UniProtKB/TrEMBL annotation:
Protein name (database record): Glucoamylase
Region (Disordered): 605-625
Annotated signal peptide: 1-25
Polar residues bias: start-end ranges: 609-618
Sorted UniProt keywords: Carbohydrate metabolism, Glycoprotein, Glycosidase, Hydrolase, Polysaccharide degradation, Signal
Top-rank taxon: Eukaryota
Entry keyword Signal: yes
Similarity-based family: Belongs to the glycosyl hydrolase 15 family.
Keyword Signal: yes
Reactions that this protein is recorded to catalyse: Hydrolysis of terminal (1->4)-linked alpha-D-glucose residues successively from non-reducing ends of the chains with release of beta-D-glucose
SMART domains named in the record: CBM_2 (SM01065)
Entry's EC annotation: 3.2.1.3
CBM20 domain residues: 526-625
Length: 625
């Protein structure tokens, strides 16, 4: 193998060829061909080295740091990613012919996989990025596209589809054809995150319009509020119902879904009050409290991570949790753990568990030290298209860390708890559960190391981004080759939001949506809806003073909190029994626990039990422990 000093001239040959080609192309377009060649070489060189397979460990010997790689990547990729997003928005986008105005396609790919549809969730997330650019003044020309988005969503809300009409479940339909017609083939439906995300995006947009006086109050109340209200009313009814999560593969409760539903209800209540919708505001506020209660149930105390999904036989270690954290980021809330803010102890502890699970799964990650960034995917059990890393999930890890750095910078301190200790000891092995102010050496070391770690994830994406800057959905776990859907809109948007987060910009969607100072209510209630009686029976022998309880993944069972578990009756000992009212047509998981007279809790061993309630009737279980 050639040494680094011999490798450099070898690698310069293709670089010069590429730049010469670019210069020639520019010359044909009327640009001075070599005017910025020196700057191009400096900025493009690290990316070429990566794409040619130069080991990351070699780059420092060539004077190339992770920071320089990331800054080169951001400089080159930002305009490409922005153009990639706009190309996928109808009707003027260059890669979405046939899409109506304001329709955001997932990808122009039409086979293996066919993504030429508009997903409510994806469109709302992409539009939030555009709203932030418009609202921060970075690109005021986006207003016409945002206006078209509003009109398109009003139309889509009224399209009758397999999930139903608008007022009876239709808003949970995940995707539509790009001409506004319903997609009627089999799919993972319903999905309850789309309406919540759309409501949040439109609320942010509307607040910007009113603040900048870019729209009359009457336009907001007559045109945009009805769209928001329909979505929020849907969330009120369906926030505690199981459905397909953002990966559309299993039906269960989903941390991401609950988190964005809580945000939508919380900011919806505030917005409704601001425009005089007092009755609606009260309803949204009540259900926001209940959703916040339910959100706490995803925390796995024993293993120190967020269980992102409660069903499907998975570990729950999932990008779902990082995505939830960045999309419910509220700078004013600091490192609040109740809403799992990016710098909260629970969000950081969960992030490191999620990242580490991919170290041995993907060949491209093997041999990389635990202090360094790697490529991440959706979840370790993933088999879709072979189960590979995703650009957007890897970028999300970087974004969460950048968000954390932003808050620490504002607070001028880092608070370490026993929960987050493992995360911080990854970067400073002498870290202790305490507060380090910005005047301490520990604060300086930790912020520097976390920044380097965050940059590493963007550097990983840079390594597997083609030289033309195009971003597919995934890249191969063995060789990093882009695969699956080409020009994925969400990949471009996720890269742009990570780039912005690195600059510590405080954007409209991340400021004071209502997360600050929240407390979990002492009594949590479920949302309204049809229920069925379910009788739980378990054959369990006990000793004197010991009782059997049941808890599980819904409010009726205490949301996995042992202190809220339901005590069973031993009237027919050794059969312990209880009859509870549970929402009809939902799936949930549960377990039995023993409580001793001294208060000791013993959980039932083995996997969680599961049950799906019928639309009517009186189901019973007959279990043995």
């Amino acid at each position: 193998m050639p040494s680094s000093q011999h490798l450099l001239p070898i690698l310069l040959v293709p670089l010069i060829a590429i730049l010469t080609y670019q210069a020639t192309s520019q010359s044909r377009s009327g640009f001075s061909p070599l005017l910025n060649l020196h700057n191009d070489v400096l900025s493009f060189f690290p990316l070429v080295l990566l794409r040619l397979g130069a080991p990351v460990s070699l780059l420092p010997s060539l004077g190339i740091s992770t920071t320089s790689i990331v800054e080169a990547y951001i400089k080159r990729e930002t305009p490409i990613a922005k153009a990639g997003v706009l190309a996928n928005i109808g009707s003027n986008g260059s890669k979405c012919r046939g899409a109506k105005p304001g329709i955001i396609i997932a990808s122009p790919s039409t086979e293996d996989p066919d993504y030429l549809y508009t997903w409510t969730r994806d469109a709302a997330l992409v539009t939030r990025m555009l709203v932030d650019e418009y609202g921060s003044g970075a690109d005021t020309s986006l207003k016409s596209i945002l206006d078209d988005f509003v009109s398109s969503q009003h139309s889509l809300q009224q399209v009758s589809n397999p999930s139903g009409p608008a007022l009876t479940g239709g808003l949970g339909e995940p995707k539509f054809h790009i001409n506004h017609s319903a997609f009627t083939e089999p799919w993972g439906r319903p999905q309850h995150d789309g309406p919540a995300l759309r409501a949040s995006t439109l609320i942010t947009f509307t607040k910007i319009l009113l603040k900048n006086k870019d729209a009359a109050q009457s336009f907001v109340t007559d045109k945009i509020w009805p769209i928001i209200q329909l979505d929020l009313d849907y969330v009120v009814v369906y926030w505690n119902r199981t459905g397909f999560d953002l990966w559309e593969e299993v039906t269960s409760s989903s941390f991401f879904t609950t988190a964005v539903q809580h945000r939508a209800l919380r900011e919806g209540a505030s917005f409704a009050r601001s425009i005089g919708q007092i009755k609606a505001a009260a309803i949204y506020s009540t259900q926001a409290d209940n959703a916040l209660c339910f959100l706490q149930s995803y925390w796995n105390r024993e293993e120190n991570y967020i269980t992102s999904n409660t069903g499907g036989g998975r570990s729950g270690k999932d990008a779902n949790s990082a995505l939830a954290s960045i999309h419910t980021f509220d700078v004013s809330a600091g490192c609040d753990a109740v809403t799992f803010q990016p710098c909260s102890d629970k969000a950081l502890a969960s992030l490191i568990v999620y990242v580490d699970v991919f170290r041995d799964i993907y060949a491209i990650n093997r041999g990389i030290p635990v202090t360094k960034a790697i490529a991440t995917g959706r979840y370790p059990e993933d088999v879709y298209q072979g189960g590979h890393p995703w650009y957007l999930t890897t970028a999300a890890v970087a974004e969460q860390l950048y968000d954390a750095l932003t808050v620490w910078d504002l607070q001028q301190r880092i608070e370490i708890t026993n929960t987050s200790l493992a995360f911080f000891r990854r970067f400073l092995d002498t870290a202790e559960p305490k507060t380090y102010t910005s005047l301490t050496d520990e604060y300086t070391i930790l912020t520097k190391e976390v920044k380097e770690y965050a940059d590493g994830f963007l550097a990983v994406n840079a390594r597997y981004t083609p030289l033309d800057g195009s971003l597919a959905e995934q890249y191969h776990r063995d060789n990093g080759k882009p695969l699956s859907a080409l020009d994925l809109t969400w990949s471009y948007a996720a890269s742009l939001t990570a780039f912005t987060a690195r600059e510590k910009k405080i954007l409209p969607s991340n400021w004071e949506w209502g997360a600050k100072g929240l407390k979990v209510p002492s009594v949590c209630k479920s949302n309204t809806g049809p229920t069925v009686p379910v009788t739980f029976n378990v054959d369990a022998k006990t000793v004197y003073g010991e009782n059997i309880y049941i808890t599980g993944s819904n409010e009726a069972l205490g949301n996995w909190f042992p202190e809220r578990a339901v005590k069973l009756s031993a009237a027919k000992y050794p059969i312990w029994t209880a009859t509870l009212k549970i929402h009809s047509s939902i799936s949930f998981e549960f377990k039995y626990i023993r409580k001793t007279a001294e208060g000791k809790i013993v959980w039932e061993e083995g996997p969680n039990r599961s049950l799906t309630t019928p639309s009517s009737g009186h189901p019973e279980t007959h279990d043995t422990w």
